[in-house]
Amino acid sequence: MQNPFDQELQDRLVRYAAIDSQSDETAPASPSTACQFDMLHLLRDELVEMGAQDVELTDYGVVLATIPGTAPGPTVGFLAHVDTAPQFNASGVKPRVISGYNGGDITFPDDPALVLSPAEHPYLAEKIGHDLITASGTTLLGADDKAGVAIVMTMARHLLNNPDIARGPIRVAFTPDEEIGRGVSERLPADLRADFAYTLDGGQVGEIEYESFSADRAVVTVTGVSIHPGWAKEKMVNAIHLASKIVQTLPQATMTPETTDGRDGFIHATDMEGGSSQMVIKFILRDFERDGLAAKGELLRQVCAVVQTGEPRATIKCEIYPQYRNMRYWLEKDMTPVDLARAAAKAEGVEPISVPIRGGTDGSRLTEMGVPTPNVFTGMQCIHGPLEWISVQDMATATRTCVTLAQMAAKG
């Protein structure tokens, strides 16, 4: 099953995954964590060493480089993000390679009770004979999106070493903080200098995605009345009780991540912290349509208003901030980048799959900001948790698809 990309992709992902680069939503800097610079500096240096041009690390934390074109054609961008998700432990990742997967249950050396089973994960059952990469059981792997990084770097090296492959100019970009929705600076579209681009941040082989959630975040601040509990009768207003009432009044049997799929959106309480005097609840709001997203924001405001009315001595503030919008709104006006990716996948023997992303990518923001950027598969599975895994051969298929895509774009 070996092909020329397998070993390089395996080596790159194992090396990259072992580097801590988790982002932090609470930190204001860009990148949000200093450890992301370990990845960014490494990628900058590797791009210089392989002979890429215009290599730079911007002051907003993005590595950019050019793979010179060898034929007329549009400038195509390929992007991946270096940060890993903050939802699960991502420090001290110990990647391991399972060569020639035999089709059975996979156990983990650092957590023997943890099991990755093909009975529960049908896609895994399709990978008999593949070389799989997982973590050791106590961390996520970080294939989201270091698999994308490995694919883009492997493609870049291959094109630089093979100038006979006809392609237009290629721009590569590695962004920070995608997992916390801050990967695309206002300056990135101009600095990328691409006519259109692709994020390598998808899952199952064949996924060519051009539709994402539209997303807002919300912060609800509940300020009660604080007083010594011994003298609190008819005086104290406990912010914890009011915050709990807000969460409980919101839909529970519907409109939450655990009760929705397909094209359903949700209201998701992600954090709740504070004390009896003040509580802060953080939410993410998701829907595929603008109207649906607005309705979810209005529902949250109404619930806050009802709880406020029931306790006028408290102060409840609901603030909603835009994050990104469904990239379909722009891509459907010109499907050329999507059609090229589909054609490249077919040329590599892969049937393209286009399903809505129940999330977002850097491409969501880039598309909204004027650079059409659909999302392409990497093979990553079970992301953001200890069961995360990926097939080296799936990554190789993604790499070949990107090389073919670059050629097809030059042909027009």
UniProtKB/TrEMBL annotation:
Q: Where does Zn(2+) 2 bind?
A: D144, E179, H384
What does UniProt list as catalytic?
D83, E178
Per UniProt, where does Zn(2+) 1 bind?
A: H81, D144, D201
Q: Extract the InterPro entries matched here.
A: ArgE/DapE_CS (IPR001261), Bact_exopeptidase_dim_dom (IPR036264), Peptidase_M20 (IPR002933), Peptidase_M20_dimer (IPR011650), Peptidase_M20B (IPR010161)
Query: What are the GO cellular component annotations?
Result: cytosol
Q: Recite the UniProt cofactor note for this protein.
A: Binds 2 Zn(2+) ions per subunit.
* Cofactor requirements of the protein: Zn(2+)
Q: What class of enzyme is it?
A: hydrolase
Recorded superkingdom: Bacteria
Taking every annotated instance into account, which residue ranges of this chain make up the domain Peptidase M20 dimerisation?
Answer: 211-269
Reported EC number(s) for this entry are: 3.4.11.4
Instruction: Identify a single GO molecular function assigned to this protein.
Output: tripeptide aminopeptidase activity
Q: Name one Pfam family in it.
A: M20_dimer
Q: Which UniProt keywords apply?
A: Aminopeptidase, Hydrolase, Metal-binding, Metalloprotease, Protease, Zinc
Its GO biological process annotations read: peptide metabolic process; proteolysis
Q: Which PANTHER family match?
A: PEPTIDASE T (PTHR42994)
Name the protein family.
Belongs to the peptidase M20B family.
Protein name, entry field: Peptidase T
- What is the source species? Ruegeria pomeroyi
